[in-house]
Amino acid sequence: MAGLKINNVTKHFSDFAALSDVTLDIADGEFVAVLGPSGCGKTTLLRLVAGFEQLDKGEIVIGGKMMSGGRANVPPENRKVGIVFQNYALWPHMNVAENVGYSLKVAKVDRATREKRIEEALALVNLQGFGERRPANLSGGQRQRVALARCLVAAPSLVLFDEPLANLDVHLRASMEDEFAAFHKRTGTTIIYITHDQAEAMALADRIAVLDHGRLAQFATPRTLYEEPANEMVASFIAQGMVLPAEILSGAREGFCQVRILGQEAVLRCRPDEIARNDAKVCVRADDLDVVETGGIAIRVKRSIYRGGGSRIEAFPVERPDIDLHFDLPDPARLEEGAETRLAIRTGWVIPQAEGAGH
Amino acid sequence: MPNSKRHQGHDAALIATVAVVVAALSILPMFRLSLEIIAPQGRFSTIALQSALSSSATWIATWHSLQVGIGGTLLAVILGTSVALLVSLTDIRLRSAFVLLFVAPLLIAPQVTALAWLQLFGPASPFLKLIGLAPPLGSPNPLYSTEGIILLLGVQYAPLVFLIVRAGLRKLPRELVEAGLSSGAGKWMVLRTIILPLMTPSIIGATALAFVSCVGNFGIPAFLGIPANYLVLPTLIYQRLAGAGPSALSEVAVLSMLIGIIAMAGIFAQDYAARRRDYRIVSTSLPAAPFALGRARIMVEVLIWLLILLMLVLPLLGLLLTALVPAYGVPLNVQTATLANFKFILFEHGSASRAFANSIGLALAAAAFAVLLAVPLGYLITWRKRWWTKFLNLSAELPYALPGVVLAIASLLLFLKPMPVVGLQIYNTIWIILYAYLARFLVLALRPTITGLHQIDRALEEAAQVAGAGLMRRMRTIIFPLVAPATLAGGVLIFMTAFSELTVSALLWASGSETIGVVIFSFEQGGDSSYAAAISVLVVAITFILMLTTNMFSRHLPSGVLPWRD
């Protein structure tokens, strides 16, 4: 078991900067999700930690031992990290027990111990008695569990998950999420979990690292990410936040400040060091908007999408047609395309001025 | 970290070993050949060059090579492309059986094909005698002619063109055909304006390959041309060497370079033609639905099976009948038919039975070596890509791309004198043939290995890596088992090709190291067609048995690895 330090890591593929100056300090036993849209560099980060790629700058330290950086470049086979691959990567020419026991055989563990540990590992993922089966004869969920057992049998100090649920159907995802959470609780292993699915990351991780175009946008707990995004990218990426221009009328007082958004005044959450300025951006989510009879912002409906039990309304301020707004309207209320109404902002978050990751 | 150093050491050792072996098999002989051309016997001189290039025999043979090369290529391309279009685009029945039989001539050694056709049409043809159409004894065989050579080259390499064009047609997305049809174009219109233009790269590629094969072919012009004193470059080289021995080496080196240049010209012409337009197909999808031939179907089917009868069944029948005839010219019937020829070549004739042992040994050794080398080599080329790995691939391709005569001459030059340092002498032994086979056929195992590796998820290797397995262990326990079916199929192909090989061994054999190809050739040259036919019948039988046996395992193979499997 070990913590992971990623210090100022940079990786280029010819001209393309896959990762620029990424720093993450992950505690021993922590469950960290690396989240971002495709092409943001999260897979590169995983491959660097595993040792499949070599970094250009920076260093990677696992459990206090320098793995990459400086002169060190420990090959993947000596890093003692486990990986659960996206498509499981089970060896088709070996049965389940052989797949699980492979790393023990490599480590020259004697036969009796090996068999015992394979049994234990299979029991941990509820696959007792599956040892003789071939991977081809297993369901998707079972294959995922074999991959998990294969990974944990070697008692790795660090386990990397590479979008492990991307190939499973929706029902299986939920139960595998439970499985991963239980796995983490039971083993206490440090886990780095790569995903593009926010719900998955939110549900599982202690902390989430959001990557954007190879840069670390924010590294914080799921709640902080949602409530206090550090920049516009995180604000708009997490839970479809709307980023609106605003003017801060008063400095922060007890975590709140007075702002004017699209002509309407509101009280929003903010950092304690926030000061009055007129170039501010705020993050507002669909839940923070209420349809009101008077006051608020005048809007025109662009599109109404029925979502079952209510509608998602897409609209724009009458004064500012270039700004997109969206909110949920529960049945039986309805708003047709072209209809006009008014919106009040109940709450929101003032995005801090300085570009910064973490808190 | 001593442990990590050890692993990196393994990496470097693997890369170095593979590179050294490939260089020894490809770059070294080609380098030696070039050296001989500019500096014969170690001294800079243009005498050999001048004497070879001023001889009229050289230019006559070059002209003949071009003649039969272009003629044979044209025939092969027309025949192979038409059959590929028919098989791929129409709803004919019994497709896989037809493909298996149509491709067979490619796997039968050229000299066996030549022998079979000669037996079919010659004045002593037991078949023509059976049906009472034999010309009188002593009249010339019509195949001893330019046209005869062109005909047989066309038959031999039509399957090669067929395979390449068929592979191209399989990749043709059906949307492109359907878009044409729904634009109102008829089937012929679609064929002419969409399918054939898109197939241009395949057809050009096939043409180049057929051309290289035709000009490099030794067996067919040796059997059909030498009796008529019609020499092409490979047979001229053979005659010079057979007549003057190693003293003629400098001169034949120049001749082999000439064939090399002609072959390369074909490849460059293909490259040029293929670059002139963009033929890339962007999407991939299911192959197009076959065109219904309707009432014409039965006619087309009869036609293509007649083709099989003519190209394969009748010649092989001719071969079999000749093998059963007790002596030249004796009419064959139930009373005269005999197995004595088989008995003679298997048990009584010393060099014939030795040749069987030699050829089986050579073919097995070449196949085994190629399989063992192809896996790490393919691994470096596909999964460990660096800027230099494509040169490894090119180097492995070179000895096979160039005509066999070129490699044979290069091997002779390389090993005429004992090897420096170790002092080992392999000239005039079976080992020089083995060396040439290893060099020439390695790529036949490498290509399917690369295809196979491209279809395997590299995460399978990475999973073993994070499990702590070093390179050698991953190679043994993960990579080799996963890609083995494809590589072994390549090994079978090597065995079949090497087993009845003639071009290389004809120039390298010595008493004691005869190969089956050489023995067939010697018997036929000595007028013992029945013995030559008997050996050929056994060779063909073994080839067919191997084809059908490997077919049974085709389920485990990536598609396209077994050429005869549709």
Automatic annotation (TrEMBL), chain A:
Q: What is the lineage of its organism?
A: Bacteria, Pseudomonadati, Pseudomonadota, Alphaproteobacteria, Hyphomicrobiales
Organism's domain of life? Bacteria
UniProt subcellular location: Cell inner membrane
Q: What is its main location?
A: membrane
Key word DNA repair present: no
Q: Quote any Pfam family the record assigns.
A: ABC_tran
Key words, A-Z:
ATP-binding, Nucleotide-binding, Transport
Single GO molecular function: ATP binding
For this record, the Gene Ontology CC terms, alphabetical, are:
ATP-binding cassette (ABC) transporter complex
Q: SUPFAM superfamilies, alphabetically? A: P-loop containing nucleoside triphosphate hydrolases (SSF52540)
| Topological type in the membrane | Peripheral membrane protein
Stored Gene3D superfamilies: P-loop containing nucleotide triphosphate hydrolases (3.40.50.300)
UniProt cross-references to PANTHER family, sorted A to Z = SPERMIDINE/PUTRESCINE IMPORT ATP-BINDING PROTEIN POTA, SPERMIDINE_PUTRESCINE IMPORT ATP-BINDING PROTEIN POTA
Q: What is this protein called?
A: Spermidine/putrescine ABC transporter ATP-binding protein
Family, per the entry? Belongs to the ABC transporter superfamily.
> Which residue intervals define the domain ABC transporter in the entry?
4-238
UniProtKB/TrEMBL annotation, chain B:
- Which UniProt keywords are given for this protein, alphabetically ordered? Cell inner membrane, Cell membrane, Membrane, Transmembrane, Transmembrane helix, Transport
Residue ranges crossing the lipid bilayer per the database entry: 12-31, 68-87, 99-120, 149-169, 249-267, 303-325, 360-382, 394-416, 428-446, 478-499, 531-549
One GO biological process this protein is involved in is: transmembrane transport
Q: What is this protein called?
A: ABC transporter permease
Instruction: Return any one Pfam family short name.
Output: BPD_transp_1
Q: How does it sit in the membrane?
A: Multi-pass membrane protein
Q: Which residues form the ABC transmembrane type-1 domain?
A: 62-270, 356-550
Its taxonomic path starts at: Bacteria, Pseudomonadati, Pseudomonadota, Alphaproteobacteria, Hyphomicrobiales
User: Where is the protein situated, by its record's location annotation?
Assistant: Cell inner membrane; Cell membrane
Record-linked InterPro entries: MetI-like (IPR000515), MetI-like_sf (IPR035906)
Could you say which protein family the record assigns here?
Belongs to the binding-protein-dependent transport system permease family.
Presence of keyword Transcription:
no
Query: Where does this chain mainly localize?
Result: membrane
Q: Which Gene3D superfamilies match?
A: MetI-like (1.10.3720.10)
